[in-house]
Every structure is written in structure tokens, then in C-alpha cells.
TrEMBL record:
Cross-referenced SUPFAM superfamilies: P-loop containing nucleoside triphosphate hydrolases
Species per Swiss-Prot/TrEMBL record: Aquamicrobium zhengzhouense
Domain of life (superkingdom): Bacteria
Signal peptide range: none
Keyword Cell membrane: no
Keywords: ATP-binding, Nucleotide-binding, Transport
PANTHER family cross-referenced by the UniProt entry: CONSERVED COMPONENT OF ABC TRANSPORTER FOR NATURAL AMINO ACIDS, CONSERVED COMPONENT OF ABC TRANSPORTER FOR NATURAL AMINO ACIDS-RELATED
Claim: ATP-binding is one of the keywords in the record: yes
Gene3D superfamilies assigned to the protein according to its UniProt record, in alphabetical order: P-loop containing nucleotide triphosphate hydrolases (3.40.50.300)
A GO molecular-function descriptor: ATP binding
Span of domain ABC transporter: 6-240
Name of the protein: ABC transporter ATP-binding protein
């Protein structure tokens, strides 16, 4: 039986009077590609921020394996093995691709330095299709290539759980295909991934299971095909 990589238990996040996440629970298994979906404003980004520690829950608990991570700082949570990409790419534009990825290796929970970090950066840049561009300044790269750099940097920490926050957003159709294939390969390698995504084809193609949120509440959970055809889910999206 698989272990839980991440458990979210009765998590609530309130901003003043607004309840952005309301008593949400779900579990993600090791090696699973798990989708977190829902219309705009449903609380997905807030949930990603709660998992990564950018925000602290008002109530409830998040565990990485058996260890409680909710309440720890983002920095601590990253060290424990949760790594993420951002909706709007966050790379260090004045540095080259290799340096950006090395930063992930140094910062991550395995803390590689110097030549070891450089070697890993090269492998990962190769892995995301940027083998020949290790020394290109990131500011000179196309948007998808910057996204690839950010993904390689997230992988450099060898995370137990990788969070992809709309990683496929803003890609043109051919780039999207490449992006989907890349995520599928990561899944095949046994990575545990939680993805927030608006591209429904990607969710259908890639995810094992998903949770659907609407107005801060979990409205459905399960295998992707049945969940997306759930009448309540269809209604939530039509109202988007
Ligand atoms: P999604 O990612 O699904 O679009 P969000 O998590 O961004 O949804 O937002 C959920 C709700 O929480 C929205 O009503 C949003 O306006 C509100 N919200 C998100 N972040 C904050 C914040 N820092 N302060 C106040 N309200 C917020």
C-alpha cells in the first residue's frame, strides 16, 4: 500500500471576514499526480500557499508524510521537501539558466554545493530540454524556457512533493504539448506532483485523481473522469 506524501486535514484560511479555504481535506499518495482545480476565486492558490507555507492555516493541519508542516515557515517547508513553481514565473533574470538551477540545489533539502550542484543543474537542464542553453541569461529566454528553468530549479531540491501552480498557463498549443509530455515524464519517474491547472485537457491526460474546489469548499474528489463529469462540478464551472 502506498504511503501518503501529503495530507491536508480540515484546513481553513480566513482573510478578515472572507473564508478563502473552508474545512478542506484531501490526501495525496506517493508517486501520484494530483490535480487541484476549480473556477476562479475558489481557493486553489490559497491552498498552494498554505501547503508551501507562504500562508499559515487559520485552522487545520497539513502533514508531509507523518510530519506536521503547517505552522512552519516557507523556508523550513522547502527544506523538508516541498518545492514549487509559481503562476507568474519567478526566476533570477540576471543569472544564467545553470546558476538559477544551482540556486535550487543549494537551497533544497539536500543542500548540494559547488561542482555537485553544477553537475545536477546540467542534468536537470538536459532533462527539461535546455541542454544547450545552460549559459544563456534567463532574461534572454522565451517564456516557456523560463518556465523550464523554474521547473529544473524546483527539481534540483529533489522534492518529496512538487507543486505546479498553473505551469502550463500562457503556452501556445505546441509548447503546451511539450509541457504536458514533460510533466508526464516526471510522473513516470515516480515524482509526487500537485498541480493547479486551468487546462482541462492536461488534467484529463495527466492526473490520477483530483480535488475540485468552489468558493473555498471541496465539492468533489476522486478519479479525474468521474469527478469532471459530476453534475456539481459541471455547474460550478458553468457559473465561472
Ligand atoms: P483561485 O486560486 O482558485 O483563483 P484564490 O485562492 O486566489 O482562488 O482566492 C480565493 C479567495 O480568497 C478569493 O475570494 C480571493 O479574493 C481571496 N483572497 C486570496 N488571497 C487573499 C488575500 N491575501 N487577502 C484577502 N483575500 C484574499
Amino acid at each position: 500500500m502506498s504511503a501518503y506524501a501529503l495530507s491536508v486535514r480540515n484546513v481553513r484560511k480566513q482573510f478578515g471576514g472572507l473564508v478563502a479555504v473552508n474545512n478542506v481535506s484531501f490526501d495525496v499518495f506517493d508517486g501520484e499526480l494530483f490535480g487541484l482545480i476549480g473556477p476562479n476565486g475558489s481557493g486553489k492558490t490559497t491552498m498552494m500557499n498554505l501547503i508551501s507555507g507562504a500562508l499559515k492555516p487559520t485552522a487545520g493541519e497539513i502533514k508531509l508524510g507523518h510530519e506536521r508542516i503547517s505552522g512552519l515557515s516557507a523556508h523550513h517547508i522547502a527544506r523538508k521537501g516541498v518545492s514549487r513553481t509559481f503562476q507568474l514565473v519567478r526566476v533570477l533574470p540576471s543569472l544564467d539558466a545553470e546558476e538559477n538551477v544551482m540556486a535550487g540545489a543549494v537551497f533544497g533539502h539536500q543542500r548540494l554545493w559547488g561542482e555537485e550542484a553544477r553537475k545536477l543543474a546540467h542534468q536537470l537542464l538536459e532533462r527539461v530540454g535546455l541542454g544547450g542553453r545552460a549559459h544563456m541569461p534567463v532574461s534572454a529566454m522565451t517564456y516557456i524556457d523560463q518556465k523550464r528553468v523554474e521547473l529544473a530549479r524546483s527539481l534540483a531540491s529533489n522534492p518529496r512533493v512538487l507543486l505546479l501552480d498553473e505551469w502550463l498557463a500562457g503556452l501556445n498549443p505546441s509548447e503546451l504539448q511539450i509541457g504536458i509530455e514533460l510533466i508526464a515524464e516526471l510522473r513516470a519517474e515516480g515524482r509526487t506532483i500537485i498541480m493547479v491547472e486551468h487546462v482541462m485537457d492536461a488534467i484529463r491526460t495527466l492526473c490520477d485523481r483530483c480535488v475540485v474546489m468552489s468558493s473555498g469548499v471541496k465539492i468533489a474528489e476522486g478519479g479525474v473522469a468521474e469527478t469532471l463529469s459530476d453534475p456539481e462540478v459541471v455547474r460550478a464551472y458553468l457559473g465561472d
